[in-house]
Write the structure tokens for this entry.
Amino acid sequence: MSEWKRTIPDIQTWIPGYVLRTKCFNDRQLLAQFIRNYNQEVFPDNREMSHNPAHSAHVVETYFQPQITPLLWVEAADAYPEPEQVNLYTPVTQPIACLWLAQDIEVETGDVKMLIQFLYVMPSYRNQGIGTALANYAEEWAKEEGFEQITLRVYVNNTSAMKLYRKFGFEDEQITMTKRLSNRESSNAPD
């Protein structure tokens, strides 16, 4: 994977009432919290995923690499008197949404495509166009980078996300099947 061609300012005015920010001094901690929030919504009965801070922290530590997996935060514009005066360490309000991008390789063809690794909008800010704007932003970025495809993964029980993605023209392409192994050392294990 390589670094992205596109450079975007650290802070920019975005959709009315919101600011898009590319860096925050506690990116890893905030991303882990957003993943926990998502998991609590989508997997309320899976305590390992939804309530274990170590799970989301592990995901972030393993996969978040700022140079090749950019992370964008959405914050309320009223937190910034003048966005041009804000820098990486300026204290701001809690972000209300994020978009985490990556590059994905199609194993069969070797093609590299953009992957929306994670898109999350806090519940009280949904249905205001923020998720739509983030999806549009990812698509425009992918085009500027020269990608011919953009992909994402979504859980089948996350029907609101599936509805949003289909609205943007995403189509079901493959199915990931999972089998939970309750005991890794079962008697069915090969000798």
